[in-house]
Specification:
Layout (H helix, E strand, L loop, with lengths): L3 E2 L13 E3 L25 H18 L10 H14 L3 H13 L7 E3 L11 E4 L2 E6 L2 E7 L15 E5 L2 E2 H11 L7 H8 L9 E7 L5 E7 L1 E4 L4 E6 L2 E6 L4 H14 L5 E5 L6 E2 H9 L7 E6 L5 E5 L18 E5 L6 H11 L3 E5 L7 E3 L3 E2 L5 E3 L3 E4 L15 E2 L4 H5 L4 H11 L1
Parallel strand pairs: 1-15, 13-14, 14-18, 18-19, 19-24
Antiparallel strand pairs: 2-20, 3-22, 4-11, 5-6, 7-8, 7-9, 9-10, 12-13, 16-17, 16-23, 20-23, 21-22
Helix pairs in contact: 1-2, 2-3, 6-7, 7-8
């Protein structure tokens, strides 16, 4: 799910960096990077070092979490339970698993801890994969994509196949076990995230994947987990007189390049499809820039507030993007495509477009992942901690965290659609604009 960075307020010169968290990771502004590049000062090979890391995590969350009640949980009791486990951990991997179990009790997908080897460039996310992208379709974990050139692509597994087991454990049992750890009902966002990360694990380790084919045959293979990197940007293409614009994330460079590309892309266009189905967020100012292309100036995009009541409002302001001489505010009809992966900054923009009657929203309900961190907290062993320090509410006071945005028309893909490479939501969007 992603991050939003709020760079500054135009009414004051003070810089405020806020990162809105979801699932994908993005790099914060330059002022926050030096702190977590410092060399580690403790080693987790000793009980003392492991406890130093544990205490730093516990105390930082206690002191900085946006909700002083910590979502109603007894944080001291969590310390009493998990601190002895941290001391007994056999290695750094086990320590970070203990930390993640403790943090999961907050039921907050944004407050997360990263071991030293897990750090990466937020604008070019680096993550561990098996070459398979898995999402829930029709109540089952379905292979949505097989990475080209990967070991998985050389097996018999295909997009549309259903994952039934991981390392010999049935998916249903695995999900129940993982969701029990966070005290979440098996439905909703927690289930979606757990299905998306069914094959997660340490890089270089094997995982046995069992699946069923289109014909119902059962198969299995062993895949290796490995690091890969995703390039974030945008793409455009035409469907007759309709322009389809897909934006993966909001960055300053993407916003400017996107605005520069639009005059040519939209020449002679009669409507626009904005595809945010894989958009995990990004830079809030960049998102506001993009929103300013489609909304009038001075539109309130919502407010961020911390536990002390300090707040920051975001508004559309077209003049930042009018560096492109031929660019004018776009008044064409718009349809926005959303999914459970539409997160943070993308959710804020979708909500504004929908509320202002500027766009029709088609697809699935969004993530409901809109909390914020001020910056990344460096841990004494070189790891990193993200703490949700800001809550977000829309211009009319609605809290999106845990709620998400409901589309005007819900379109669910089927396993048959995936096998036939049919994009049902896009088809409905195009028909809507062609009326």
């Amino acid at each position: 799910m992603g991050r939003i960075i709020l760079r500054s307020s135009r009414r004051s010169r003070a810089v405020l960096i806020v990162v809105i968290a979801a699932v994908c990771l993005f790099r914060p502004a330059t002022p926050t990077t030096a702190a977590y590049d410092d060399p580690p000062v403790v080693s987790t090979s000793t009980p003392e070092g492991r406890l130093a890391v544990f205490d730093d995590v516990w105390e930082t969350i206690q002191g900085r979490y946006y909700d002083p009640r910590l979502n109603g949980i007894d944080w001291q009791a969590k310390r009493d339970t998990f601190r002895p486990e941290a001391a007994k951990a056999n290695n750094a991997h086990e320590l970070y698993e203990v930390l993640r179990q403790m943090i999961s009790s907050l039921k907050d997908a944004h407050t997360r801890v990263y071991a030293p080897e897990e750090k990466f460039d937020w604008w070019n996310p680096r993550y561990v994969t098996t070459g398979l992208t898995i999402r829930e379709v029709g109540g089952a974990p379905i292979v949505l994509q097989v990475e080209s050139g990967s070991a998985a692509a050389k097996t018999d597994i295909r997009t549309g196949d259903a994952i039934v087991s991981v390392d010999g454990v049935l998916v249903a049992n695995l999900l129940s076990s993982r969701l029990e750890n966070v005290g979440s009902h098996i439905d909703g966002p927690a289930r979606y995230r757990k299905i998306a990360t069914l094959l997660e694990g340490q890089p270089g380790t094997p995982v046995t994947v069992g699946w069923t084919t289109r014909e119902g045959k059962s198969k299995s293979t062993v895949l290796q987990r490995y690091w890969t990197q995703r390039h974030l940007g945008f793409s455009t293409y035409r469907k007759g007189k309709l322009a389809v614009l897909r934006i993966d994330a909001f960055t300053q460079s993407v916003a400017l390049e996107f605005s520069r590309a639009l005059p040519k892309v939209l020449e002679g266009a009669a409507g626009i499809v904005l595809d945010f189905r894989s958009n995990g967020g990004g830079d809030a100012e960049a998102m506001a820039d993009v929103a300013s292309l489609f909304l009038d100036d001075g539109i309130n995009l919502g407010k961020f507030a911390d536990r002390s009541g300090a707040s920051f409002e975001l508004q559309t302001y077209s003049k930042r993007l009018w560096r492109v001489p031929e660019l004018k505010r776009i008044k064409l009809p718009i349809v926005v495509l959303t999914s459970e992966s539409t997160s943070s900054a993308a959710e804020i923009m979708v909500e504004a477009l929908q509320t202002k009657g500027r766009a029709r929203v088609i697809g699935a309900a969004t993530c409901g992942c809109v909390l914020a961190i001020r910056n990344r907290h460096p841990l004494p062993d070189g790891g990193l901690l993200d703490v949700s320090e800001f809550d977000y509410r829309t211009a009319n006071g609605t809290r999106l965290e845990g709620r998400g945005i409901k589309p005007d028309e819900t379109i669910s893909s089927t396993r048959k659609d995936i096998y036939s490479r049919r994009d049902a939501a896009l088809e409905v969007a195009l028909r809507s604009l062609n009326r």
